[in-house]
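Open question from group meeting: does this chain pack into something compact, or does most of it stay loose? Before anyone orders reagents, we agreed to write out a predicted structure and look at it together. Recording both the input and the output here so the notebook holds the full record.
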Amino acid sequence: MRDVREVMRLYREGGQAVREIARLSGIARSTVREMIARFERSGLAWPVPPDIADAELERRLYGAPGVKPGRRKQPEPDWSVVARELKRKHVTLQVLWEEYVAEHPDGYRYSRFCDLFRRWEGRLPLTMRQSHGGGEKLFVDYAGDTVPVVDRRTGEVRPAHLFVAVMGGSSLSFACATWTEQLGDWIEAHNAAFAFFGGAPQLLVPDNAKVAVIKACRYDPMVNRSYTDMARHYGTAVLPARPRRPRDKAKVEACVGIVERWLLGRLRNRIFYSLAEVNAAVAACMADLNEARVLRQYGKTRRQLFEEVDAPNLKPLPAEPWAHAEWKRCRVGLDYHIAIERHHYSVPCRFARREVEARITARTVEVFLGSERIAVHMRGSGNGRHTTIPEHMPSSHRRYGDWTPAKIREEAQRIGPMLSLLVEKIIESRPHPEQGYRSCLGIIGLAKRFGPERLEAAALRALEIQARNYPSVKSILEKGLDRIPAPKSPEREPILHTNIRGSRYYH
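Structure tokens returned:
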């Protein structure tokens, strides 16, 4: 109301014309005329009494905010609903005003609608200004929009997702494209970001996506174990933003907006045929953003500010980047194996039926019970087969598993040639050789009970009577037939009888 008091002083005390008052005060002539007219209608005396404050003077001259004197108040929209709808994609004030006018034809015009909403926004909860120390926080997120990639052979279009990382101190930004937003691509994008910045921050600040946080909580979120292991490898920690609090990571939200409006806008007319082409184009655009554009509030580029503020405070990178590993809960079967991607891996047999955790990398599979590593294997292909370490087997299974066809023949030969010949006869007599292995094992095992000499003699007797199975050999030994020579068949005398014609009859 300082302008009103000044205009009325020039008008009443100075006797200046409206044109001159407008020139001296820097106010439009129409506004000067309106001020004078409103003051005259208000009935106030000049000079204005000192007990009338500016707010009271404004109320007497202009009435309630947004309401012109002599006119009824227009239908008021629910500004909270307007603010909520504006958060949705592709919704603007123009769209919401058109919906408002359709419901209230005599309502506010578009410019007044926007003014009142902006004024209502001023009554929203205040936003705390955040300050981030050098190298303290790295904000990470995925952009909402994707980049289409065309397959040269099939013409299929596949979306590439944009990962964005921003340093809190300097706003130096990094972006790269990945095929998915799954854990593997999430970890690899972090590796690329750390390599780009040349170090690791004190804290990583993601949102509450499942790839980073298993269970969101305002006070004690449960972070993905693989993500935690990666952070520990780089000497940093994970501090997820609070659920439904995007202002906790306003840096990356702003950068994502820049990426979507500026980077994607530049690439919208380009056709990409591989993920490498997308990343090359993204890197070129981000280099322009970081090194060519000067931040007005600092008078420096993001890269210059990074070298000054963030770079000296980053933690050095380890010798090797983090190798991505996934964790999977498994239950050990009765065969003391766990199944991972259609391949079975053994664990010590004493852990059968126990619930364990498997750490899966591109090359290895490690099995943990609590914090104890109980097994480690080279990763196999998902072919339905199994990888078994002999030390994991029970002693009985190990003995059986050690028996191979070559070893069976070798053991039989060691006992004697008759047993070796019998074993070969048994294997040959079966439709499939493996059908005879168990019978051979049983026969060889009889040497412990009856001795090698008797078993060799029993094998000879079995060959003579054409016995080809375990029960027959066992019966020979139990009945002591191995000690009795097999009877020779007597020569048969010719049969003489009148009814027998003989060989001459036919000649």
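Observations to bring back to the group:
The first strand starts at residue 137 and ends at 150.
Residues 66-72 have pLDDT under 50 and may be disordered.
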